[in-house]
Each structure stands twice: as C-alpha cells, then as structure tokens.
Amino acid sequence: MSRSALEKAHSLVRRRKFSHAITLLESGNNPDIYRESFDYFLTAGISCLYLGDTGSASAYFQRARHIRMTDPTLLCAQAVLFLRRGDMDRAINYYLDILDYDPKHKIALDAMEFIRTHGTYEEVCKVVDSGEIERFYPPLGLNPDVIKRIALSAFAGIVLAFLLLNFGRFSRIARDVHVPSSKPRADLNALFLSVDEMGNARNQDSSGAAYKYVLTDSQIKKSFDLAMTHFQDYRENASLVEINRLLNSNASDSIKAKARMISTYFTEPTFDSLDDYGDNIAYSDVARDPELYIGCMVAWSGRVSNAISEGVSYRCDLLVGYENLVRVEGLVPLFFAEAPYPAIDSERPVKVLGRIKVENGKILLDGRAIYQPVRRDN
Prior knowledge:
378 residues
C-alpha cells in the first residue's frame, strides 16, 4: 500500500529534509485534505521551525492549537518561538503548561534551567545565532540516513580490515588510496532554503545597488545548493566559491545570511586535503576574478624575495610559478602574522599554504604553512 503524503512528510522530517517536507505538504490538494488534521499542521510547523521560517511555523502551530491545545510537543514548539524572541514570560508559561502534563519533560526542564541561569535577551541572541537554540526544539529522533551511513561505514571498515589482513601484498597501493574522513560534517539542515526564499531568491529592492554577479532565481538556488553539497563533500574551497558568488550577487539578504552561516562550519584545508579533493586553485584563475576566491586556501609553489622579519611577523613577495626559474605567473605579497614564522630560503623553491585575501583589487596571501625540500648536495 502506498504511503500518504503525511506519512511521507514524517519520513522526510526524520531525515532532516525539511524543505522537501514542506513542499510535499503544501502541494496539490493536501492543504484541503488535511485541513482538520492536527498532525498535518504540527509537522508543517516543525519543518518551518527547523528551516528558520519562524513566521510560517507560528501560523501552522496556531492552526494546530485550534484543533488540540494540550499536546506537549506543540506547546514545546510554541514555547521556543517565544524564547527565540526573548519573550521570557510567555515562554515560561508554556513550559509550565508542559510540566503540568509531563513533570519529567526533559526539554521543558532544560529550557526552564536555561531561562533561570541565562535568561537575558543577549544570551538568547547568542544561542539563536550559534544554532544552539535547536536543543529546545521538538526532538526528531534518529536520522535514518545517518544510521545508514554509519552501517555502511562499519561495513566498509570490516571489508577494509579483511583486505588488509588477507592481501598484504597490496598494502602499498592501499596506503596510496585516499579514504575520506569518517567524521560526520555539521548538520546544516536548518540552513536549507525555505519555500518563501526559493520563491523570492533575488533581492526585491535593488534600486541603486551594483552587483558583480546578476543571477536568476534558478542560478541563485543552484549556487546555494552547490555550496551545501560541496561542504558535505569536504570541499571547502568549492563551497566558498559559490558563497562568494552569492554574497556579491543580487541574491536576497536572507539567502546571503544563510550562505555566510555555511562558511562558519568550515575546517581549514591542508596541503594534503587540497591535493586529495583536487581543490587547489590556480593563480591564473584567481587573477581573473579575485573576489570569487576570497578566503579560499591555496598551495602555490615558487620562490620568495624581499623577505622582511618584523617582531613576530614575516612578510615577503612570493614569485608564483618561478620554482624552476623559468616563468613568473604572478607576484603575491605573503604574510605570516604570528611567530614562529617560517625560515624560507630564497635560493630554493618553496610551496606555500595560505588563505587568499584581496585589498584594493590586489591578491594577498595570509600564510599558514610552507614546504621546502631539504637541499641536496650534488
């Protein structure tokens, strides 16, 4: 028997695919079919809540409340909306109602303790900005997709162990194969675009604005989706390129804010990870459009000149591509702001790991690490 739209939406919510759940619930005749369904409005409201669309969430919760007033999950969801706004009195009243029905309700008890110890508007703003406010949201249970990934990772580990134990003659090849990190990435489901954001992806008030990239709605959504996908694939540079494209475009302010939030979850690439994921960016690409690559990490080879040590800082010019003394692709100022800064031999080639900055249209490198082979005597 095929599942109903509401059952499918439940599954999508458990899998943290909130925007898909909303799209399904609001499609076709579903709003009419479920117009008297408490579960329908609660599920839609919780999906909007996790997406950050608190206005739609509040509207759905109000509809649910007209059908059933004493449900602890609904009260928990409405209470956290008041908590997000800093309306402590109303939040407390809702949490007290929950505890009347369920004195051991963990979220209500935790929220009351938070209000007691950190119940200022400033503290609430901090937990909202950091995303920690989600610990007071109605729980969603285990994510089946995560369970599946863990099971697949465990199976892959067993297979790998078997191969290493039984095929030792291939061990050198196995060492050369890159195995992606099993450490899960941050859960960015709360940053998926809401239905309203997808329908109004462009800045509606662009009078007097000058954008470097003028994008269509579909281009904005595609760029945002790529930023999310590349992040999940451990490709910080590729994700950041899409984020920079959005930040310098006619995308709406809310989409730009979510794009900035993605970058706060980045981990800094290394020499190895740039090579593993093929995300090292050529100097020529950066030179063509520097603003698109601001903040990206690169590993560029060359030689240094004009080195100056000043206290705890070190700066020099990196002659990119000049490691073989044949051709200089570009001259890039390189800075190491903190000690211990590297001792770079200007007579030998060097490979520099650094973060791209742009000042007055000029490319700079904020140095992170260097690799310089040991001199070999002939």
